[in-house]
Amino acid sequence: MIEWLKNYVLSITGVSVLTLIAECFVPEGNVKKYASFALGIILSVCIISPIFSFKMDKLEIPEHSEQVFDFTSAIESTVQSVKGFEDASVSVFQNKNKIEKIVIFPKGDKLLEEAVRAVTVEALKNTLSSVYSVDKENIIISEKE
Question: Among the four residues 24, 57, 99, 142, which has the most C-beta atoms within 10 Å?
Answer without folding.
Answer: 99
